[in-house]
Amino acid sequence: MMYVIYGVIVSAIILGWIINMFDKRKPTMRFIAVEMPHMKPLPMGTNGVGFWKGIKMWLTTTRKWELTDDWVYTINGTRFKVPKGFVFDGASVPKFFRSWLSPMGVLLMGGLVHDYGYKYQTLRYANKKASNGIKSQKWMDETFRDINIAVNGFYVLNYLAYYALRLGGFVAWKKHRKVNSQWRDDE
To answer: b/e per residue, 158-187, with b = 16+ CB within 10 A?
Structure first.
């Protein structure tokens, strides 16, 4: 069974490499981040919950990260920021793929912007107490894809991640709409 899984993954990598060799498009988005986001890992909460519940949490939960400084980035000449204290989990990569694709790897910057956008339905301007207005789930998913293409240049990988978001991202989107997460200018 493992040979099949490895064969599929190696085949996907080779296919992606071939496609990338012939796909010389320029990114449609200009994305600039002067530095990587500064963040710290948060405890997973497995301490003191018992053995079986701890194992279940370890297998089914994802580590969360907290920004320790404001992270400023630019999209098409407009400066935005994700404020210090924002908690996120990176790109939502299924656990069985994490050996090859880390949530904090090549999808980190797009995942951070995307998680903030999913939570608040908007992106916050860097030097103003204002945002870029209410955005749709599709707009946030496209922003995730385009940021990652601008950062890492892996078209195939980023389009696969984008289509996975289009298929399953509605769960997180609806959760945030249900709790009515609102952007506040005092953050």
So the answer is: beebbeebeeebeebbeebeeeeeebeeee
